[in-house]
Design a protein that fits this description.
Number of domains: 2
Oligomer: single chain
Length: 315
Amino acid sequence: MRDPDRQTWKSVLTHIRGAYPTLCRNWFDEIEFVGVDGGSMVLRAHSPVHRDYLRRHCLDQFNDALRTVTGRLLAIRFIGPGESDRAESRPGRVADEAEGLLGSAGFGSGLDPLALAPSDAAAGIALDAGVETPGNGLDEPMVVRHPGPRGPSRAFYASEAEPLGPGSLVINPDYDFEQFVVGPSNRLAHAACQAVASDPGYAYNPLFIHGKVGLGKTHLLQAICLEIKRARPDATIHYLSCEAFITDFVERVRAGAMAEFRHRFRNVDVLVIDNLHFLARREGTQEEFFHTFNTLYQAHRQIVLSSDAEPDEIP
């Protein structure tokens, strides 16, 4: 009996050879299919050199081929020899993961991804702050509406909180992916966040989630932080509200300590900011934010943003 996921990988490779002949190398046949995890197809290169080559030069093309072959919003993730991945214990999941990403009837009720014009590409917000526009493929901005239901939560004590570092918000340990109630209206948001947590900096970077108050955006943000921190304990994660970012910026300007501010926010592995709509009409803070955004994006550091407003509603 054929493994449908391996057949999908073979179809992806065939598509790449036909669509991108100058990109192909003989050793592409040696790339090992590992499995599907969190919305990503995981492939293993047989050497660190080949893994790095694939990540630097082939991500966009492989990602395009996977989406063309499957018609689904999946992403390629490359790992090297000796690198473990949860997908090894979860083969045979392309169909299931795609269903989770898009729902059985397309993008689901009211949860269509937004196509961004070039001027809107930086985190989905059209602000002329010198931000370089991300290209197509895995590094393109991912913007999802999130109208879906959230699961019940309980009160928790400070001693139970997951520590992220000084200045970061407290993380509720119950706000993980398993506790999030997934339905037809929020599958895309949930799966995109899982993909980001599995491959920060490469799968959907930046990620922008917007929806009305009380629909679980904060739950998803905290789930990303929890998953990354548990998988990579040494990762530097800053999770904060937009209000805290603004307050810190104003205080550092007054104190003449902008170098310290920039070091703090531009030397992280993951930056997660909730309620970005509070950045509206704050030109000085906007400019500093987008310089920070650009620095992190160019370094393949993961950026996750949430807002009650749609991107084009934030002036």
